[in-house]
Amino acid sequence: MDMVKAAKELLLQDRVDIFLGYRKLDGHQIPHGFTKAHVDDLDQLEISLNRYPLEKIACDLAQKDPTLKIGILARDCSQRALNLLYTWDQLNPENIETLTVNCCPSSLSTHGDCSYLKPKTTGEYKKAHGIDYNDSPKDFMAEHDSQDRLSRWMYEFQKCIKCYGCRNICPVCFCKECSLEHPNLVEPGVLPPEVPIFHLIRATHMAGRCIDCGLCEDACPAHIPLRMLYREVNDAVFDIFGYVPGDHIEKSPFSIIGKTVELTPAPMDV
């Protein structure tokens, strides 16, 4: 079914109160909330590779009105984010309707996934001193000893300007009080932030939560390979708990806080 027609039906049939998608404004695609009162605005619905965390907008709307029925234009990573937000009771799945869109339009596949995206280009200096965007955590661990890995991460972290772009765009960052703004952890008013504590705090909080959408890396003006960092911590979560964030609507192993449980330690590489 045509996406515009499908979105209009959701609104006209009162299945949703608002539909979150994209429209063009002054030549730029921006997130927009379409409503039944202005349903013809959906004729301007845009679908492209541009991405914003529509799920984060949905969370903000749901906090203001928990009964609001929300439609969302969703890619695969959006669905993973929604699954995790359902798990942590940030959104009610009964109030969410999704219209799925091909994540990466491709001449090779009508339903391509992120593997069809053109790999990022990593400069030679960055390859020599930092981290290749296209390395996997396992390859990175295998190719460099612990001292070299630390040196390369420090090279990347020292570029940080503490813009909070990684946190602000993350669809699964929903803490009311952010540890990155706690004065005992991250000294306020100091640029650049203390290395590496700023990014280690965030990486710790992404363990078991990051859905590998890559928005943080897209937003980073310093080109820090954040996706690799969070993949590393999620690999550890998978090795210990067998848990992949956002794959299904299931309780996170970190939701056991406050309960008496017994865990069996598993060996892992460091």
Write a structural description:
This protein is an alpha/beta fold and 270 residues long. The chain folds into 2 domains: 112 residues, no CATH class; 137 residues, no CATH class. It is built from 10 helices and 4 strands. The chain has a 4-stranded mixed sheet, sandwiched between helices. A hairpin with a 2-residue loop joins strand 1 and strand 2. It is globular and about 60 Å long.
Q: Any idea what the radius of gyration is?
A: 20 Å
The largest beta-sheet arranges its strands as 2-1-3-4
* Element pattern in H and E: HEEHEHEHHHHHHH
Return the structural class.
Answer: alpha/beta
EC number: 1.2.1.2
GO molecular function, one term: metal ion binding
Protein name: NAD-dependent formate dehydrogenase subunit beta
Keywords: Iron, Iron-sulfur, Metal-binding, Oxidoreductase
Task: Write a compact overview of the structure shown.
This protein is 35% helix and 9% strand. It has helices at 3-12, 54-64, 76-87, 124-129, 137-143, 146-157, 165-169, 197-206, 215-219, 226-241; strands at 18-25, 28-34, 70-74, 96-100.
Keywords for this structure?
single chain, 270 residues, alpha/beta, 4-stranded mixed β-sheet, 10 helices
How are the secondary structure elements laid out?
Layout: H1 3-12, E1 18-25, E2 28-34, H2 54-64, E3 70-74, H3 76-87, E4 96-100, H4 124-129, H5 137-143, H6 146-157, H7 165-169, H8 197-206, H9 215-219, H10 226-241
Parallel strand pairs: 1-3, 3-4
Antiparallel strand pairs: 1-2
